[in-house]
Amino acid sequence: QEDAADSAEAKGWEGEEEDVEGEEDENEEEEAKEEEKKPSKWKCLDCGSLNFAASTECDKCGSAKPSKEEATLLQARNDAKEEVAKVMDSFLRDQADLQNYRRDHTEAMSRAKELGKQDALRKLLPFNEDIAAALVEPEGMDDKTKAIHDSYSLLFKKVSDVWDKGGVESLTTETGVKYDPVRHTIVEEREAAEGEAPGTVVEVKKSGWQCEGKVVIPCQVVVVAAEKKKETAPEPEAADDEKTEEGEEEEEEVKEEAEEKKEEADEKKEEA
Predict the structure, then answer these.
(1) Are strands 208-211 and 168-171 parallel, antiparallel or unpaired?
(2) How buried is residue 215: exposed, middle or buried, by Cβ count under 10 Å (0-12/13-18/19+)?
(3) Within the chain, which residues score under 50 in pLDDT?
(4) 3-state SS string over 190-215?
């Protein structure tokens, strides 16, 4: 019976809460309807200023109050303008994103093309040494052999013409200049002679190549080695300081032992 009473009481509370919520919803609906019934301010078609609902003329320019049809059309026009503004803003943003993508894509493709060209040149240009060696005329050739050699020379010359058209040039350097990590590759280091600064190029082992002013294969050079740092011995003053500190510690230990022995002797005398 008690459980039944509790359940009935709980249902009663729930019913009261639902009634309260229903009343609140009804009050809110009534307030919203009253707000809608209240006359709203109207906007002047000529100057755009807001006027009270009871006014029949614009307080600013004196124009007559528009009719309901005109007010509806005006609201529709304003909504259309806002929608157009949103669409145009979105369109301009998309257009800017597209331009940025095109610029990034063009730069990436140009960079990839340049890197691919340089990579191909690094693999092909070393064959120029073999071509140059093949163009050297050997001694004791007869007319037939010389004709064959000349024909191959013309063929190899076309290869060099391709390099010239592509902006490929030989990269040279002089001795006595400072080492440049972009234009030079160190293949050997030598000890400095009189008047030679570390990092100075003293010999060019092999020339390099460049394309349109950019280094493709750097020159192989020999440079002056950097001076080795000499290991400095510890200063005598520091060593003397260490010795004096060790002597002081030993003296303190001897004093402590003497004091302990003296105390033991005094205790024995007192006991006697």
Answers:
(1) antiparallel
(2) middle
(3) 2, 272
(4) ECCCCCCCCCEEEEEEECEEEECCEE
**CA atoms of 17 and 12, how far apart (whole Å):** 9
Q: Which two tokens stand for residue 13?
A: 């509370």
Q: Which residue has the tokens 């902006």?
A: 167
Find out whether 68 and 40 touch, Cβ atoms under 8 Å.
no
User: Within 13 Å of residue 4, how many CA atoms lie on the same side as its CB?
Assistant: 1
Quote the pTM value.
0.48
Q: In what helix (H) or strand (E) does residue 94 lie, and over which residues does it extend?
A: helix 68-124
Q: Are 13 and 6 in contact (CB under 8 A)?
A: no
Q: What is the pLDDT of residue 254?
A: 66
The CA-atom distances, in angstroms, between 249 and each of 173, 237, 246, 261 are 66, 19, 5, 19
Coil vs helix vs strand at 220: strand
Angle at which helices 143-165 and 127-134 pack, to 10 degrees? 150
